[in-house]
């Protein structure tokens, strides 16, 4: 089971068209585009496997170890039941401080869940990163007006992800690892 967080903003950054203007057109309305200096955003956690995706969890902007363990308890465990049933699985997470805290390691041991040893400062090899990118591209034309509309748009787009899409992304992992190893960008032992 692969997990990660991603930030979604009402304004999706510099994805809009560029405006070219001639001298003297700086204030011409067709050369102006409104922007928001600090757009509303939400942080989302989720997990996926080759069987599909789990339920989304919307996070506070800063998550400590206790908060993360609540996410694991109320979102990861139900996702594991949904995606794996009684089968064993290995959990993958990056090395964010809340993830690598001693209390979080103890939580995993207490629940009998093995955690994949993920390299620090590694390139983003986690296929869920690609899944977040796909969701953001599909949302590119959505124009939510507030955080609640943004959450609804994320939920609706996430619900469209099929197990086949997840399976394809996970199947790409050996090629990703090989490419990074060939470029000497990560350790060879996973």
UniProtKB/TrEMBL annotation:
- Source domain of life is Eukaryota
What InterPro entries does the database record attribute to this sequence? Answer: RNaseH_sf, Tc1-like_DDE_dom, Transposase_5
State the coiled-coil residue ranges: none
Give GO MF terms, alphabetically. Answer: nucleic acid binding
Pfam name, any one: DDE_3
Please report the stretch or stretches of sequence annotated as the Tc1-like transposase DDE domain: 3-151
Q: What is this protein called?
A: Tc1-like transposase DDE domain-containing protein
Species source reads Esox lucius (Northern pike)
